[in-house]
Amino acid sequence: MKTNKINLKNTSLENVELLVLGVFDDKKLSIAQKKTDSIVGHIISNLLEKNEFKAKRNTSHLLYSNALEVQRILVIGLGKRKGFSLHNLREAMGIVAKKADALKIKNVTAEIVGKPAIRKPIESVLENMAIGFSLGGYKFLDYKTGENNDDLKINLEILVEGHIYVAQKRALEKGISVADSVRLSRDLANHPGNVATPTYLAKTAREIGKLGGMNVTVIDKKDFKKMGLGAIAGVAQGSDETAKMIIMEYKTEKKTAKTLGLVGKGLTFDSGGISLKPGAKMDQMKFDMCGSATVLGIMNAVAHLNPEVNVIAVIGAAENMPSGKAYKPGDILKAYNGKTIEVLNTDAEGRIVLADALSYITKNFHLDALVDFATLTGAVISCLGHEAAAVMGTESSFVKRLLKSGENSGDRLWELPLWDDFCEDTKSKIADVKNIGSRGAGTIMGGAFLKEFVESDVPWAHIDIAGVAWDSKEKPHIPKGPSGFGVRLILDLIDNF
Fold it and tell me: What's this model's pTM, rounded to 2 decimal places?
């Protein structure tokens, strides 16, 4: 579904195709809902009184009205009134989008769902209604053919009592921009590896840069060794696709602005290389570039929102393929910061690419904080499933800020320790470091390896998104497949940076 428009309008009901009302499990209707119930012949109160709809969270019931003002009413269950959150609101609006799409309805009118249980400013509520509706209706149909596979364009009007203020309109516009950026991230990950190549990612970065007045530099594979980017060069040498190091620089006009650094893993296909992966589900390894998709989604939002924070992004984009030219277990590579890496497993390639990206960004830019995103380890799924990403870092106060942004955005994080004992296990007997450890704790060992390539005392956090970047289970505002995880997380961090 492509959202055509999301608008605000003063409270009035006339020729409404689908009206959306949210009801808590105590089944108490608001004054406005009672007024609507009277207009439509008390079909809402009758439904609730007969206990045919229990209003549990993320449930819904469709009613048909004989009233001229309203054709249909979608009653959304909101669950318990106490503790109802913006996350719950986004889920509810995701259900609305899915129901409207299933019913082929082009125009939806919604009250401010969950009011007044959400103790947040109305601007925040409107922003998250737009996000939930837009993300809930997401589809990826670029490679579908036939007239039945067209996207349905749906208009959403949100009813606001009294005067509509400029701040409310801006909040809605921000929600649309944020959702569009998450959708871009999902699109990039959904494209197959023969389309979303490193060259494609670089082209996307240039388009975003042009939109946001950013300086975009793309370093090609042929220049890697000359520039000392030996780590990504090693990973990329088995593929015929030209690898890229992509640098994006957004500068605000505010002279005292702080600078946030972002790094994304962009393995556009990961076969495992010589340490070949099993054939089952290898098609999902097109998703190994989700870290770069997150960073590009963030930069797209930055281009639209123009925050008063400088943002520098670096993406290492490559394929990991087996061939006569491919790097091998036992090889030693030299990263941008001069450290040597003993390759024990060519399927632990993401951290090798990130070694160059992290050392490049920290050597060439003054940063106030740095975050990297990577689908780095399968171990994180054993640890946290598909419910949260793992975070670890060098400064506890910065990690705590990220954890808070995770709660605010719904892109939840869980902190893992980065103790010296783990870092010690990255040491190699014949090189500076080795790319896999021997202690278990695979997710932490990935972070411990990366720490060796953060070249300054900048507060740094590594976020392993392998469990949340994509999933086979659908959620109200997250489809099967790529989620766009991390875009809203960092935008919340930027708002409070």
Answer: 0.97
Closest of 367, 410, 364 to residue 389, by C-alpha: 410
277 is catalytic: yes
pLDDT at 116: 83
Q: Of the listed 351, 401, 434, 451, which one is catalytic?
A: 351
Looking at domain 2-164, its CATH architecture is: 3-Layer(aba) Sandwich (3.40)
- Residue 80 is among the residues annotated as catalytic for this protein: no
Domain extents in the chain: 2-164, 180-495
User: How sure is the predictor about 248, in pLDDT bands with cuts at 50, 70 and 90?
Assistant: very high
Specify the range with the lowest mean pLDDT, choosing from 5-14, 217-226, 272-281, 372-381.
5-14
The beta-strand segments (E) located in 355-459 are 369-374, 389-393, 413-415, 433-434
- The matching CATH number, chosen from 3.40.630.10, 2.40.30.130, 3.30.1300.10, 2.40.160.20, for 180-495 is 3.40.630.10
Separation between Cα atoms, residue 36 and residue 62, nearest integer Å:
15
Inter-axis angle of helices 86-102 and 122-136, to 10 degrees?
A: 40
Which residue out of 203, 277, 404, 475 is catalytically annotated?
A: 277
